[in-house]
Amino acid sequence: AQSVSQHNHHVILSEAASLELGCNYSYGGTVNLFWYVQYPGQHLQLLLKYFSGDPLVKGIKGFEAEFIKSKFSFNLRKPSVQWSDTAEYFCAVNAGSQGNLIFGKGTKLSVKP
Amino acid sequence: NAGVMQNPRHLVRRRGQEARLRCSPMKGHSHVYWYRQLPEEGLKFMVYLQKENIIDESGMPKERFSAEFPKEGPSILRIQQVVRGDSAAYFCASSPPSRDLLEQYFGPGTRLTVT
Predict the structure, then answer these.
(1) Set of chain B residues whose Cβ sits within 8 Å of the Cβ of A106
(2) A103 vs B44: CB contact, 8 Å cut-off?
(3) Residue ranges of E strands in A1-113
(4) Would you put residue A85 in left (φ > 0), alpha (ψ -120 to 50) or beta?
(5) pLDDT band at residue B101 under the 50/70/90 scheme
(6) CB atoms within 10 A of CB A44
(7) What secondary structure letter does DSSP report for A61?
(8) Pairs across A and B, CB distance < 8 A
(9) What is the mean pLDDT of residues B88-109?
(10) Distance between the two ends of chain A, CA-based, in angstroms?
């Protein structure tokens, strides 16, 4: 069965620190990859997505992610986090011709001012 | 352009009652997905519908749960005879009528509490 693993349950950083959140998926075929963010009390918002082409994708708010096919990974990065980045981050995969998304369990990011 | 709307935002039901959750997709979107989020878990796919059709219900529990997306009106997720284990956040997402179905927009969710 397809699955998505997010390695870190809770990450605590100080402002200006660099961020990398891990995401690995299990599926051998063509995948579309997403990172969603859920700010406290708000709904899920799309941060960035990868469909094809350049494996380094840039999203909103200075986030980027790199698709490494050989490692089945799609890690999220930001060079310098801000307090306002405090949120929960979800990696998701849309596999093959299926319409549904398969989500990881999420990583809570707390940024200390 | 209004986003995906869900109501109610919070719903409290006693064990054995029925819960009805509504989802209005974004304007122009004809695909609706329902997901459930249990505490400390990621979102789990339940069902995927187009207008008047269930496309994929592989994530729906076999009993007590049903979903519809009528020609007119919102999509409804219905849970009959609720139990405490049904307490969760239920999210609806919609996507435009494109063949690739690559991007889903989420609503704010309905938090169901079963007492």
Answers:
(1) 42
(2) yes
(3) 3-5, 10-14, 19-21, 24-26, 31-38, 45-50, 56-58, 64-68, 73-78, 87-95, 102-103, 107-112
(4) alpha
(5) low
(6) 26
(7) G
(8) 55
(9) 84
(10) 41
